[in-house]
Amino acid sequence: MSAQFATPGPWEVKKDDDQFRIRQKGTVRRIAGGTIERPVGEGFNYKLDAQLAACAPDLRDLLTEARATLEMWKDVAPAISLCADIDKLLSRANGESK
Questions:
Q1: What letter does residue 7 receive in the DSSP assignment?
Q2: Are residues 22 and 62 in contact, defined by beta-carbon separation less than 8 angstroms?
Q3: For the CA atoms of the chain, what is the radius of gyration?
Q4: In 2-87, at which residue ranges do the beta strands (DSSP E only) sit?
Q5: Cα–Cα 20 to 30 A to 82, which of 16, 22, 30, 74?
Q6: DSSP secondary-structure letter at 8?
Q7: pLDDT category, 1, cuts 50, 70, 90?
Q8: Residue-range domain boundaries for the chain
C-alpha cells in the first residue's frame, strides 16, 4: 500500500470577492477578461487537504511548543537553523509574512 499525501505544496492563501481561498501555487492562470483556476499536475487529494487544514491549529500549537523546547539547544548549529525555519513557518501560519 502506498502512502497518500495531501496536494503537494507550496500552497497560498488568496482573497477573492471577500472570501479566502487556499490553493496550490501555480494553479491560477490569467486570461483576457478574467481568471481561471485549473489543476496543475497530478496528485490532488481534497479529502486529505481538508484533514490537513482541519488540524492546522493543532500543528501550529505543537510547532510553537517544539520551538520553545529547541531553545534549550540554541547554541547548537542544527538547532539554530531549525529554530529559524520554524520561526519563518510560524510567521506564515500567523499571517505575518508570505
A1: P
A2: no
A3: 17
A4: 11-16, 19-24, 28-31, 34-37
A5: 22
A6: P
A7: very low
A8: 1-54, 56-93
